Amino acid sequence: MKLGIFGGTFDPIHNAHLFLAESARLLEGLDRVLFVPTRVQHYRNAAQVSAEHRCAMVLGAIATNPKFKLDDTDLRPDATGYTADLLPRLRERYPGDSLTFIIGADSLANSTWERFDTVLEHLDRFVIAPRPGVRAEALQRVIAAVPKNLRERIATLNMPELPESATLIRTLLSQGRSVRYLVPEAVWQYIVAQKLYGITE
Fold first, then answer.
1. 2-163 adopts what CATH topology?
2. How many beta carbons lie within 10 A of that of residue 130, not counting itself?
3. Nearest one of 161, 171, 176, 135 to 11, comparing CA atoms
4. DSSP secondary structure of 47-68
5. Strands 2-8 and 32-37, how do they pair?
6. Residue 200 and residue 117: Cα distance in Å, rounded?
7. pLDDT, tens digit, for every residue of 119-155?
8. Are 1 and 32 in contact (CB under 8 A)?
9. Domain locations in the chain?
Protein backbone atom coordinates (compact mmCIF):
# COMPACT_ATOMS: atom_id res chain seq x y z
CA MET A 1 0.00 0.00 0.00
CA LYS A 2 1.18 3.53 -0.78
CA LEU A 3 0.66 5.73 2.29
CA GLY A 4 0.87 9.50 2.50
CA ILE A 5 2.15 10.87 5.80
CA PHE A 6 0.76 14.33 6.56
CA GLY A 7 2.09 15.56 9.88
CA GLY A 8 1.38 18.83 11.64
CA THR A 9 -0.13 20.55 14.61
CA PHE A 10 -3.58 20.86 13.00
CA ASP A 11 -4.46 23.71 15.34
CA PRO A 12 -7.06 23.68 13.81
CA ILE A 13 -7.26 21.56 10.68
CA HIS A 14 -8.66 23.62 7.79
CA ASN A 15 -9.82 23.28 4.19
CA ALA A 16 -6.37 23.91 2.70
CA HIS A 17 -5.03 20.93 4.67
CA LEU A 18 -7.72 18.73 3.13
CA PHE A 19 -7.16 20.07 -0.38
CA LEU A 20 -3.42 19.46 -0.06
CA ALA A 21 -3.93 15.91 1.22
CA GLU A 22 -6.38 15.06 -1.55
CA SER A 23 -4.17 16.63 -4.23
CA ALA A 24 -1.15 14.68 -3.01
CA ARG A 25 -3.19 11.49 -2.90
CA LEU A 26 -4.23 11.86 -6.53
CA LEU A 27 -0.97 13.23 -7.93
CA GLU A 28 1.15 10.61 -6.16
CA GLY A 29 -1.25 7.71 -6.58
CA LEU A 30 -1.56 7.14 -2.83
CA ASP A 31 -3.92 4.55 -1.41
CA ARG A 32 -4.42 6.44 1.85
CA VAL A 33 -3.29 9.62 3.58
CA LEU A 34 -2.52 9.46 7.30
CA PHE A 35 -3.06 12.67 9.26
CA VAL A 36 -0.45 12.60 12.03
CA PRO A 37 -0.93 15.31 14.68
CA THR A 38 2.13 16.07 16.77
CA ARG A 39 2.30 16.38 20.54
CA VAL A 40 5.55 18.38 20.67
CA GLN A 41 6.21 21.46 18.53
CA HIS A 42 9.87 22.37 18.04
CA TYR A 43 9.63 25.04 15.34
CA ARG A 44 6.34 26.74 16.18
CA ASN A 45 4.53 27.98 19.25
CA ALA A 46 2.79 25.36 21.34
CA ALA A 47 -0.67 24.32 20.21
CA GLN A 48 -3.45 26.49 21.61
CA VAL A 49 -5.82 23.58 22.22
CA SER A 50 -5.25 20.07 23.53
CA ALA A 51 -4.35 17.04 21.44
CA GLU A 52 -7.77 15.61 22.30
CA HIS A 53 -9.54 18.60 20.72
CA ARG A 54 -7.21 18.61 17.71
CA CYS A 55 -7.82 14.91 17.07
CA ALA A 56 -11.57 15.39 17.38
CA MET A 57 -11.41 18.15 14.76
CA VAL A 58 -9.29 16.02 12.43
CA LEU A 59 -11.73 13.11 12.76
CA GLY A 60 -14.65 15.42 12.00
CA ALA A 61 -12.85 16.92 9.00
CA ILE A 62 -11.92 13.60 7.38
CA ALA A 63 -15.05 11.62 8.23
CA THR A 64 -16.46 11.76 4.70
CA ASN A 65 -13.27 10.60 2.95
CA PRO A 66 -12.50 6.88 3.38
CA LYS A 67 -9.01 7.47 1.96
CA PHE A 68 -8.08 9.64 4.96
CA LYS A 69 -7.16 8.28 8.39
CA LEU A 70 -5.97 9.67 11.73
CA ASP A 71 -2.74 8.22 13.13
CA ASP A 72 -1.82 8.94 16.76
CA THR A 73 1.82 7.74 16.68
CA ASP A 74 3.25 11.23 17.30
CA LEU A 75 0.90 11.86 20.23
CA ARG A 76 2.23 9.09 22.45
CA PRO A 77 3.97 10.09 25.68
CA ASP A 78 7.40 9.09 24.41
CA ALA A 79 7.08 10.85 21.04
CA THR A 80 9.81 13.43 20.47
CA GLY A 81 8.07 15.53 17.82
CA TYR A 82 10.97 15.03 15.41
CA THR A 83 10.11 13.52 12.02
CA ALA A 84 13.36 11.55 12.05
CA ASP A 85 12.11 9.74 15.17
CA LEU A 86 8.51 9.42 13.96
CA LEU A 87 9.22 7.68 10.67
CA PRO A 88 10.87 4.52 12.08
CA ARG A 89 7.81 4.07 14.28
CA LEU A 90 5.53 4.42 11.27
CA ARG A 91 7.69 1.89 9.40
CA GLU A 92 7.08 -0.55 12.26
CA ARG A 93 3.37 0.20 12.31
CA TYR A 94 2.94 -0.14 8.54
CA PRO A 95 5.53 -2.76 7.51
CA GLY A 96 5.97 -3.21 3.80
CA ASP A 97 4.05 -0.07 2.86
CA SER A 98 5.51 2.71 0.75
CA LEU A 99 5.71 6.03 2.64
CA THR A 100 5.34 9.46 1.05
CA PHE A 101 5.76 12.49 3.30
CA ILE A 102 3.57 15.50 2.46
CA ILE A 103 4.62 18.99 3.49
CA GLY A 104 4.01 22.65 2.72
CA ALA A 105 6.95 24.56 1.26
CA ASP A 106 6.89 27.03 4.17
CA SER A 107 7.50 24.26 6.71
CA LEU A 108 10.54 23.07 4.80
CA ALA A 109 12.05 26.46 3.93
CA ASN A 110 11.38 28.28 7.20
CA SER A 111 12.49 25.62 9.69
CA THR A 112 15.83 24.04 10.46
CA TRP A 113 15.17 20.32 10.15
CA GLU A 114 16.88 17.91 12.48
CA ARG A 115 18.50 14.96 10.66
CA PHE A 116 16.86 15.73 7.31
CA ASP A 117 19.00 13.08 5.61
CA THR A 118 17.65 10.50 8.06
CA VAL A 119 14.09 11.61 7.29
CA LEU A 120 14.62 11.03 3.57
CA GLU A 121 16.28 7.66 4.15
CA HIS A 122 13.07 6.38 5.77
CA LEU A 123 10.86 7.56 2.90
CA ASP A 124 10.10 6.53 -0.65
CA ARG A 125 8.96 10.04 -1.56
CA PHE A 126 9.01 13.54 0.00
CA VAL A 127 6.55 15.85 -1.74
CA ILE A 128 6.31 19.61 -1.28
CA ALA A 129 3.22 21.76 -1.80
CA PRO A 130 3.82 25.34 -3.02
CA ARG A 131 2.98 28.08 -0.54
CA PRO A 132 2.62 31.85 -1.02
CA GLY A 133 5.73 33.82 -0.14
CA VAL A 134 8.13 30.88 -0.32
CA ARG A 135 10.73 31.55 -2.99
CA ALA A 136 12.05 28.71 -5.11
CA GLU A 137 15.59 29.71 -4.16
CA ALA A 138 14.88 29.03 -0.49
CA LEU A 139 13.71 25.51 -1.27
CA GLN A 140 16.63 24.88 -3.58
CA ARG A 141 19.09 25.77 -0.80
CA VAL A 142 17.56 23.12 1.45
CA ILE A 143 17.44 20.50 -1.29
CA ALA A 144 20.99 21.27 -2.48
CA ALA A 145 22.32 20.30 0.95
CA VAL A 146 20.87 16.80 0.60
CA PRO A 147 23.15 14.00 -0.72
CA LYS A 148 22.52 13.36 -4.41
CA ASN A 149 21.35 9.81 -3.85
CA LEU A 150 18.48 11.11 -1.65
CA ARG A 151 17.62 14.18 -3.71
CA GLU A 152 15.70 12.15 -6.28
CA ARG A 153 13.10 11.27 -3.62
CA ILE A 154 12.04 14.93 -3.36
CA ALA A 155 9.38 16.36 -5.66
CA THR A 156 7.16 19.44 -5.86
CA LEU A 157 3.42 18.92 -6.24
CA ASN A 158 1.79 20.50 -9.28
CA MET A 159 -1.01 22.31 -7.46
CA PRO A 160 -2.11 25.89 -6.66
CA GLU A 161 -0.56 27.86 -3.83
CA LEU A 162 -2.83 27.76 -0.77
CA PRO A 163 -3.03 30.99 1.23
CA GLU A 164 -5.08 29.65 4.15
CA SER A 165 -3.22 28.86 7.35
CA ALA A 166 -4.04 27.83 10.90
CA THR A 167 -2.35 31.05 12.06
CA LEU A 168 -4.78 33.12 9.99
CA ILE A 169 -7.73 31.15 11.35
CA ARG A 170 -6.62 31.56 14.96
CA THR A 171 -6.09 35.29 14.37
CA LEU A 172 -9.58 35.72 12.93
CA LEU A 173 -11.11 33.80 15.83
CA SER A 174 -9.20 35.91 18.37
CA GLN A 175 -10.74 38.97 16.73
CA GLY A 176 -14.23 37.55 17.13
CA ARG A 177 -14.60 36.92 13.40
CA SER A 178 -16.05 33.89 11.65
CA VAL A 179 -13.89 31.24 10.00
CA ARG A 180 -16.83 29.30 8.67
CA TYR A 181 -16.02 27.97 5.17
CA LEU A 182 -12.28 28.32 5.86
CA VAL A 183 -12.60 25.13 7.91
CA PRO A 184 -14.85 22.10 7.32
CA GLU A 185 -18.33 22.56 8.74
CA ALA A 186 -17.76 19.81 11.31
CA VAL A 187 -14.66 21.66 12.56
CA TRP A 188 -16.49 24.99 12.73
CA GLN A 189 -19.33 23.43 14.72
CA TYR A 190 -16.85 21.76 17.07
CA ILE A 191 -14.96 25.01 17.69
CA VAL A 192 -18.21 26.79 18.52
CA ALA A 193 -19.55 23.98 20.71
CA GLN A 194 -16.31 23.65 22.67
CA LYS A 195 -15.66 27.43 22.76
CA LEU A 196 -12.14 27.02 21.43
CA TYR A 197 -9.69 29.75 20.37
CA GLY A 198 -11.36 32.44 22.44
CA ILE A 199 -14.93 31.97 21.20
CA THR A 200 -17.34 32.94 23.96
CA GLU A 201 -20.73 32.45 22.33
1. Rossmann fold (3.40.50)
2. 17
3. 171
4. PSS-HHHHHHHHHHHHTT-TTE
5. parallel
6. 45
7. 999 999 999 998 888 877 888 888 888 889 999 999 9
8. yes
9. 2-163
